[in-house]
Amino acid sequence: MSQPFATIAIVGLGLIGSSIARAVRQALPDTRILGYDRSGDVCARAQALDLCDGYHAEFGPELAEAQMVILCVPVGAMAVAATAMEPHLSAQTIISDVGSCKASVLTALRSALPQAVIVPAHPVAGTENSGPESGFASLFKGRWCILTPDDRADVEACGKVAAFWQALGANVETMDAAHHDLVLAVTSHLPHLIAYTIVGTASDLEGVTQSEVIKYSAGGFRDFTRIAASDPVMWRDVFLSNKDAVLEMLQRFSEDLSALQRAIRWDKGDELEALFTRTRAIRRSIIEQGQDDAKPDFGRTHQ
Ligand SMILES: NC(=O)c1ccc[n+]([C@@H]2O[C@H](COP(=O)([O-])OP(=O)(O)OC[C@H]3O[C@@H](n4cnc5c(N)ncnc54)[C@H](O)[C@@H]3O)[C@@H](O)[C@H]2O)c1
Ligand SMILES: O=C(O)C(=O)C[C@]1(C(=O)O)C=C[C@@H](O)C=C1
């Protein structure tokens, strides 16, 4: 595999940044990796794992050696990180990111770096864990990576970023940022909101103890607890950054939930069965397409 970039910089060495570093080491071993994290502790932990070729808690002149910088920080921290690195960037450096929402991040990056070549990306792959220890090299294999360049984006730069993600095993798709945010609001953001809600509701129940919730959390509820363990800062930022699309999807969800409530109240078994039959078919077509990696796997081991 030819390497799209001789040197890259990864800013934020948590789950996604460290997974990129590991995947680059495996798939593009000649690529030099400059690692950045504002936390000295995270830099030290990343160094102990030998993830990068250099570790920095602050940006310096070495950043200009990177042909691509990938911002792997929470979406609410993208502007701060971009502003801090601005004085050290080369004009040719491609700026990319992995943020879970795209429109707000693009606005933040364009305003912090008005002259930069920007190619936003979102690898639709992750787990409920955070930090450099939780990353793994195979995270992106067979998963989608969505690029959301605007009409100012450089075609050659988009091709290089696509080639980079393909080298890490991802399938690349290009989409408008606003459309991305609408799709992900229903496929990723709303499910997280529902999981956070249901686990909170169960733990607040009077007459049911916390230990009973844990002890009898079989099947469905247990699946929700994995998602509800996802990083609080990352998800706070996702909901605040993709507010409009999430509120739109939440409105539709509430209406559908009310319809189900009514069907249960008035014993409309046929309505319940029709919906459940439709949703079962969706799950089965996901499995048929070989995308059944959404299953919870509590003892998951990664390489
Ligand atoms: N976790 C997932 O499942 C997942 C999947 C796809 C995309 N994403 C996106 O990836 C990004 C990172 O998520 P993660 O799960 O790797 O988070 P993480 O918490 O594991 O890592 C984030 C790292 O960024 C560092 N950081 C924060 N602000 C910084 C700054 N201003 N400068 C430098 N470093 C800074 C933190 O110290 C931390 O080490 C987020 O934008 C998220 O939306 C996450
Ligand atoms: O599998 C999980 O734990 C995830 O939440 C991963 C997941 C998703 O919702 O699919 C979460 C946020 C990302 O932006 C991309 C992937």
Automatic annotation (TrEMBL):
The keyword Amino-acid biosynthesis applies. Gene3D superfamilies: 6-phosphogluconate dehydrogenase C-terminal like domain, NAD(P)-binding Rossmann-like Domain. It catalyses: prephenate + NAD(+) = 3-(4-hydroxyphenyl)pyruvate + CO2 + NADH. Keywords: Amino-acid biosynthesis, Aromatic amino acid biosynthesis, NAD, Oxidoreductase, Tyrosine biosynthesis. Its EC number is 1.3.1.12. Residues 6-294 form the Prephenate/arogenate dehydrogenase domain. The keyword Cytoplasm does not apply. GO terms for biological process: tyrosine biosynthetic process. Pathway: Amino-acid biosynthesis; L-tyrosine biosynthesis; (4-hydroxyphenyl)pyruvate from prephenate (NAD(+) route): step 1/1. It holds the Pfam family PDH_N. GO terms for molecular function: NAD+ binding; prephenate dehydrogenase (NAD+) activity; prephenate dehydrogenase (NADP+) activity. InterPro entries: 6-PGluconate_DH-like_C_sf, NAD(P)-bd_dom_sf, PDH_C, PDH_N, Preph/Arog_dehydrog, Prephen_DH. It comes from the Bacteria. Belongs to the prephenate/arogenate dehydrogenase family. This is prephenate dehydrogenase. It comes from Blastomonas natatoria.
